[in-house]
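Task: encode each sequence below as structure tokens.

Item 1
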Amino acid sequence: MGIIVENVSKSYGGKKVLDNVSFEAKDGEFVTFLGPTGEGKTTLLRIIAGIESPDSGKVYFDDRDVTRVAVQKRNIAMVYQWFVNYPSMTVFENIASPLRALGSKIGKDELQERVMATARLLKIDELVDHYPSEISGGQQQRLAIARALVKNADFIFFDEPLTNLDYKLQEELRVEIKRIFKKKSKGCVLFATPQPFEALTLSDSVGFMHRGRLLQYGDVNEVYHRPNSVNVGSYFSHPGMNIFEAPVERLEGKTLLKASDELVFDVSHLAGILDADRYILGIRAHFLSTGSADGATIPFAATIELDEVVGSNTELHLDHQGLALVALLDTIGDFEPGMEITAYLNPQKLFIFDADTKKLITRTGSH
């Protein structure tokens, strides 16, 4: 039970926005659709919710075909990127509005109880007498989420709900959203975002969207640790995965991947499946460092192009013989642009992609 989408396609003005998308979201799952802006995530949510109709394909809720069922007749709720609250209503009345739309089906006492319980859950119960203009942006988005939750909808859709909030508010609401939906056993949550970190921290399953196609869909850990292509691997990483080419050299019975004179990787144990002349390599930023933990890492000379402090971490943007690399350090160091350093790379953490198809072939070790 849950949501099943089968072969859904959609075009606008001759341009295909969704191309044969299929997936299943089971009861209790939190599913994130990840990808840059303009890849079809919003359109997919709107079609599943019933706001738009597909050109072809089917949508099922709990094994019932709802493809042509009006949105008003689907037990869904939606939270948008922009705050969709009624400015002339108090916080209480905004939360109550979906219940009042049900008319006499909800009694006065039940309405009061459900509104206040939802307000407490979102930590805005002390603001129920305020108007949206009198509360902060983060509180307004909490209000929008409360309006969605109060309906007790089986299926809840989030369309980039944190994008327009500052970093701290995004962090707070990520925690709240995860807490609220962690124990959801009936129905499921579909969440669209361009932010890999949100997909990593919130999701049970993740789907990567690219040019209207669902390139990969599955358990979040499986997709993260085994991205099926360069597109998925390079984007679904925080910060982005380092991607670079490496020609193959076969010397004295060894198979080597040579990204530079210093970055040479012995992949002889994979020689049986590496029969091309070149490959694309990928490595996550946290497997590059400025200090060697053991003799397994490979040292290489690099110039610091930029250092960015992110929380308690530092992102070092490096240049190595024209090769741009990013290292993620779990410290705040004394770095300056132009500084020459020795960096280290763990060769057991490489992803190897086909240079032509961009598909994942294998990994060099455990990840």
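Item 2
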Amino acid sequence: MLNAETGRFRWNSRCFFSLSALGGLSGLFSGLLGVGGGFLIVPGVRQFSNLGMHGIVATSLLVIALISATTVAGFLWSGGSLSAAAWVFIAGSGCGMLGGRLLAPRVPARYLQLGFALLAGLAALMLLGKTLMSLFPLH
């Protein structure tokens, strides 16, 4: 839980274990499936702490940025190269994250939570549709 006087987490063993386990699961699923930053951190931190939605969104964006940056750096370090389209995507993602971070304080926390839930549900439906299409081709 957040300390009301300092605005920081009270780092006891329960807080440390909960957030470490959430971070570990997020990293595991990010590595295995390419998801985890937003899909696990947002609901997990919301469930296990009293951090506000704006702080949760900022934390999630930072985790996504760090995972993405280390992945790209590792790929480049190993001799890979990115196409111009990939660099445009990276720049667009960075601008989108910064824009979202600037816009988030102006959006009520309830709407941020609802928007996240709707996007997560839409992503799940799209993945389900893609899976079903590959299992049952139309031709």
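Check on item 2: Residues 6 and 110 are 24 Å apart (CA to CA). The chain has one domain: 13-135.
End of task.
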